[in-house]
Amino acid sequence: MASKKTNKTHLSWNDPAFRAIVYQIAVLGIVAYVAWYLVSNTMHNLSIRNITTGFDFLDREAGFAIGESSIAYTPADTYKRAILVGIVNTLQVSALGIILSTLLGSIIGVARLSTNWLVARMATVYIEAIRNVPLLIQLFFWYALITENLPGPRQALNPVGGVFLSNRGLKFPALQGDSLSWILYGLLLAVLCTFAVYHGSRKRQEKTGKTFPVFRAGLFMLLVFPFIAYFLGGASLALDYPVLRGFNFTGGLSISPELSALLAGLVIYTSAFVAEIVRSGIQSIGKGQWEAASSIGLGKTRVLRLVILPQALRVMIPPMTSTYLNLTKNSSLAVAIGYPDIVSVVNTTLNQTGQAIEGVLIIMAAYLTVSLSISVFMNWYNRHIALVER
User: Is CATH 1.10.3720.10 correct for 79-148+258-385?
Assistant: First the structure.
């Protein structure tokens, strides 16, 4: 039997393994020293200026109003609650921005590959123009367009009954009643069941080759489950219409000019990058795939949806992840147009409390957590759709 060779590390500078260990220890030591120096120097400067440190201020009364909040908040609430409002607002903008920019960017990316000369050129002009104008400038443009060119509440545009558009934002009817929460739970249950049916149908198809009408089953659950939940909640549901009272509307739901401008800027700017990712992903698929799918009688739309895009997703997901992360981080520019995101709320907090370091750490931790969550999900999805060698 051949003897096993063992790679032993020798305490000699001529041994590459020993040198590698020494270099790593040296680098770790330098990093630890720099971190210690920065922390100790900061703490020393704070103590000289009699500035207290810590996060005890989070339990004190905030004392300032927040113009837009998806959760209940009053100035009598704590700074902790105010920061939570900012985080929720940031998550709201990021989620809506990711969904809308993906939809718009996919359409434009496919349009750029169109055989229609005008459609392809218009998509190209859109991408090149939007990508080469700074996002902050675009946010200022949309905010000015909404606040300065739309009429006031008394002269608000009324394109559809109950919907009003003015320089105070978009007002539209809202559902209210005891059954509303039940309906939302019904929708959530329908979505979860649809995903379960989808995964079950894929495993069934891999084993037996038989397909299952997932789309029709999902549509049925999305319609039936909320309908049943409506009656379980007492069949109490009504529309609350916005009504002009004084100088503004009351009732219904509203989208503020700040949120509208922020969403418009983020979606339009990010969709240009998404469009290029979609275009490159589609073009990465060989021409033979188009020809093979067309030879069995599939039309161009079905070839794109059933054959090309599923393969192109494996190319598009990594750069799409970076684009989603950039959108989330770019939402911090909301402070420039007055939307109360996490940066704006924490900025007000640190101005009142003087806890600048703690405030910046909170912002960093919030964006780091959201970004890592998006990255983890996208990496999981990337592994899920990856080709598995058999």
Answer: yes
